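dumping this here before i forget
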Amino acid sequence: MLLSRREPESDAELVTARSTTQRVARTFALACRLLPRDVRDDVYRLYLVFRTLDDLVDDGDPRAPARLAALERWCAGGPATSRETRTLTGLATRHDLPRDALADFAAGMRDDLDGRRPAREEDVDAYCYRVAGTVGIVMAYVLGFTGEPAEVRRTAAALGMAMQRTNILRDLDEDAAVGRCYVAAETAAALGPPLPGRREALLRDQIARADALYDEGVRGIPLLARGRFAIQAAAAMYREILRQIEREGYGLRPGRAVVGTRRKLAVVARSGV
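structure:
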C-alpha cells in the first residue's frame, strides 16, 4: 500500500527536502515559490534526490558508489533499495519519470567519482548534460508538457546545461582549491588558464557558450504545461551570474560571483515573470 503524503515518513522527507533546497539552493528556492502548489512539493523531493547523490559524490562519501548502483538498478527496472529510489518510486506514481535520463545522471556522478577532467568542449557538454541536462529533462516530465517530446527534452537539457556551465564559471576558484577543473584542457591551452587576472579571454568564450544554451533552453519553456513562470525566473536569475562575472571584470580577482536577492528579484521583474 502506497504511503499517503500525510504519513509521518513522507512528512519528514518533505521537511528535509524543503529545508535542504532553501539552505543550499537559494536561487532555485526562490523560483520554487512560483511553482503551482500541486507540483511544488514533488519538485522539492526531486531536488533532494539529486542533491543527496551529488553531495555524497562531492564529499567522497564511501556510500556514494552503492547509492549510485541502487539508482542504476532502479532505472533498469529493479526494486527501490535506497532512500533516493524509494523517493523516486513515490514520484513515479504521480509522474512519468524518464528513467533513461536518471540513468544518465548516475553516469555523470560516476564521472565525478573518477575525477575526470574534460579534454575538449564536447566533453564539457557531455558532462553538463549528464549532471544537469538530465535534471532539466526530469523536471519537464514532472511539470508536464505539450508538443514533441524530443523538442522538450532537447530544450530542457539545454537549460540545465546552461546552468551547469554557469556553475562551473562561478566556482572556478572553489573547484581549483580541491583539485577540480571542469574547463576543457584544449580551451585552457588556447585561451589561457582559469586563474584570477589571466582568464578574461577564457571567460568571454565560456560565457558565450553558456548564453547560447540559455537561448536554446528558454525557447522550450512555453512547451511546459505548468511552472513556466518559475522556470523562466530560475533561468533569468541564474543567467544573471554570468552578467555579474562580466561586471566584476571577468575573474580579475579570486572568488565566487554572487548575485544578491534584490538584484535577482529585479531581474525576474524585468524578465516579465
